[in-house]
Specification:
Structural class: mainly alpha
Largest sheet: 2 strands, antiparallel
Helix content: 55-70%
Distance between the termini: 35 Å
Number of helices: 6
Strand order of the largest sheet: 1-2
Length: 149
Amino acid sequence: MTGAHDDELVVLVVRAAKAIVDRLRTEHAEGATSPMTVVHGLAVRYLVDRDDATTVEIARYLRITKQSASEVVGLLEHNGIVQRAPHPRDGRARVVLLTDAGKAKLEDGRRRWQALEDEWRQLVGTDRFDAMREALELYLAADAATPAV
């Protein structure tokens, strides 16, 4: 299947991710005007079941600078999604914790994401969907093992 409109796989992945984000934003009342980005969502997901995550660890996970991570955490805190608290073992550090409101927003997002995944699975079939998920997970695991540049 070749032709003038064929995109590289990476372009297709990016376009699909953008389409998913755009759709989720338009389906949510505050989505179109929210200052939150995909990076903010990834930071929130990182905090699930963690009570000792620092801004530095969030930066490392997101592969962004500490300053950028501080800005991400600042916006999340401003919007009531996270709060900072003293680190339980390091008196000099502060941890970033999900608030109850942040947990509720995350749960709402998960329900919407699940509905979209169900639709996608129906569109491409369970075998293809599972193969796609496995391929993406393998790539991300390999990428995580590669030192950040």
